[in-house]
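Field reference: sequence -> structure
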Amino acid sequence: MEQPPQTTPAQPPKPQFPPTPIVHARGTHLQIGRQIGAAMSEQVRHSLESARKLIEGSYATLELSWEGALIQARKYLPFAQERYPQYVDEMMGIAEGAGVSCDDLATLNAMEAMTMDALHLTKCTSMAVNQERTADGHVLVAHNEDWVPEDEADVYLVHAEPDDEPAFLAMTYGGLLPNIGFNSAGIAQCCDTVYPTDSRIGIPRIFVSRAVLGARTLSDALRLALMPQRAAGYNHLLAHESGELYSVEVSARRFGILYGEDGYIAHTNHYLDGKMQAVEKEPDELIGTRLRYFRAVRLLRQSRAHTVKSLKTIQRDHLNYPESICNHEVEGDGPLDREKTINALIMDLTARAMHVAWGNPCQSKYHTFYLEA
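Structure field:
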């Protein structure tokens, strides 16, 4: 395959990160949470500290203190408790295992909903190719996770075997519920933040996406992404080991479903479906996400023989640097605008493998993990 053209980063590479930490957990959701919290207590505590600093450092914009955020989070939690008590148990288990407040952790998991209008984090990139476009007939799914730089240190993987759901291998950071990964039913999920105008108090989107990770069939995954009473929504890029590829664009009250017609699919942080664009917040400001989307599509179209290596090349792409697919922090940006690629992962659904680069993929080596269940 011809390698896609790239631009040179404006800064020298940093030392490579070690393999991403991983925790193995099994049992009930409460037990799994406790095992995650105990193993990753340092990361959980640090993520709470970072979230508190983000809220307090942005008071002029958000007009929200941490104490106020705790109060707001209590409005969302009953919706999650009613529909997904097992994942509330999982979250409580993380808090117990890490020795932190359940209220604080609930606030962290609902923070996107509470700060939605002010967070300008719009640079995640997801893509997938099926048997029609891979050299070895494998189904591959890739995701660059972009978030605040402080959370990079808190990234880890969860290899879990719940008593009542398929086993899964997923990425998360700090005290957030895991949601980006794949399960033993052959279903993979990537999540991209989108910006609808119809957000409301309801089930925080991370609980919805955690539920999708527990799906046993592709139709179950789609139904779970569209759960009623959701507070808002992600784009859920879903792939099945059979080669079926979907993007499920979700807001609080609407949804659109896109299909990978030609063996590939890509998504960033803006709506593609026309009826979803009607509820998109300030679409004229979402320029960078469109550039990344079209760039990813072009690079995916260049070959019908993609490999893990070719997807790594796309994940490292620096066109429109620093707001590129491989996103780099810009010094001096405000606290609500600072972000970078904190990890990149490629899921091989056929081999049940996940290749993960901790930090910017242009500066880090990928390490391979397997779902053994």
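Note: The chain has a mean pLDDT of 92.
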